[in-house]
Amino acid sequence: MAVLVAARSATSGLRGVLRRGRLTLLAWAVVLAYVTVFVLAMVHTTYDTWGALLVAPALMAIGTPILARVAGANPERGVFKLLMVAMAAKLACAFPRYLMAFVLYGGAADAKMYHQKGSELARYLTTADFSAGLHYDLGMKVAGTGFVIIVTGVVYAVTGPTLVGGFLVFSWMGFWGLLFFWRALQIAFPEADSRRYAKLVFFLPSLLFWPSSIGKDAWMMFCLGLTTYGVARLLDRRFGAFACIALGSLGTAMVRPHVTVLAGAGLSVAYLLRKRPQQVSALGPLRTVLTAAVLGVGVMLMLQQVSTFFGTAGTGGDAVNQVLSETSRRTSQGDSVINAATADEPAPAFSLNPVKLPMSVVSVLFRPFPFEASNIQNLIQSVECFALLVMFVRAWPQLARIPKLFVQRSYVAFTVVYTLLFCWAFSTINNMGILSRERVQVLPLVLVLLAIPKPAADRPARRGRRRPPRWRAQPGQWGAARPPGPELPAAVGAPGPSRTQGGSTS
């Protein structure tokens, strides 16, 4: 027996040595391959390309300890591995996004302009005398495109002007936005299926691909995620909520202020439906009124910002129609137009009648349909949209709970209000390609609805624990050596120690 135990121990130790040896060998192979690729890239490409080989490990090194801290505070198992895979996948998707912009479309993308102007700004920032103040002319207003140029210039001032590296940084930025969405769900909707939501929000192809380029999409994803994280903290009465909401809203307002208004409207409704605490302090009602007033003022300021951004007069219904009509006209170009304008119309007709809101929801969230695809990109997008539609149909029992959860869970109210307003406003977009890219601003909140837990009646009944056997063999009863110690009492119904199995006495 002792020999067998020793042999097993030796075998286990040998396996451990071999396993560690294979891991060490694999690590050395990865390092050698990285150095080889790095040297070849330096010889045959410019810093635009090989700079990414410096940026990618740096981003992973910065993100890993943060994810370890997030995973350490999470009760679910395997969270760190899931987050690391999600971050690596998000960074990897920057490469096909770059190929699409600069190989498939030959550089006819906004990222090229951001790269050029961001490189010029980075050169100025790295050589400027800050004590004399900053005097740099963007050649355009700061809000909108100008702000993304500033962000790109600041990024390049740190990493150097590397185009592929810039794609990696913006994609990494989008990943943290998705992480904020995931944490918001865990804080404000703890009974939701957090693991399913994590798999959807981190690995949905649209969310991996589109916000992985130098441009507005990745920045908006980061800031919308930060805003939503602040909303969740506010609804759960946690510290730091207003700081997150203010920073996130400022970031979205500098690029797309109309989206900030939609988020502000959703937050206002959710705050009014927020569950009251069991013990209300004397200052509780006053704090609620002040917070509602601050939110109202914030929404009004954002409406003014929208009016300035689009160059409209006022913030009334005419101004909204003017903005949406201009959006419909600008997006009615290219091969992927949904509703083409007739020859005698300046822009395609659109309707904002609330009766057509269900059609707007279907159009914004689930188009293009497979039979509407005009090229391979639209076909791939249509497959994802169809899969998403099937998931929503299958989740009908959970979706039927939305009216009840709308009142009970204010985070669901925030999600529903923002989603409906977004679909209503963005249904005026007439180009499927633009629509596919723009809807990533609503998908993380739409996926919350797929994480609603099933009704209790539909859950499979939990198997009860097996009843322990009524009779267990006592140690030593079947011939094995009895451990030293006091003699154990016989179980009820067990044969006496002086009886054999056959029942005869010795």
Automatic annotation (TrEMBL):
Region (Disordered): 459-506
Organism (species): Kitasatospora setae (strain ATCC 33774 / DSM 43861 / JCM 3304 / KCC A-0304 / NBRC 14216 / KM-6054) (Streptomyces setae)
Name of the protein this chain belongs to: Glycosyltransferase RgtA/B/C/D-like domain-containing protein
Membrane-crossing segments per the record: 25-44, 50-70, 82-105, 138-158, 163-182, 218-235, 285-303, 409-427
Keyword terms: Membrane, Transmembrane, Transmembrane helix
Keyword hit for RNA-binding: no
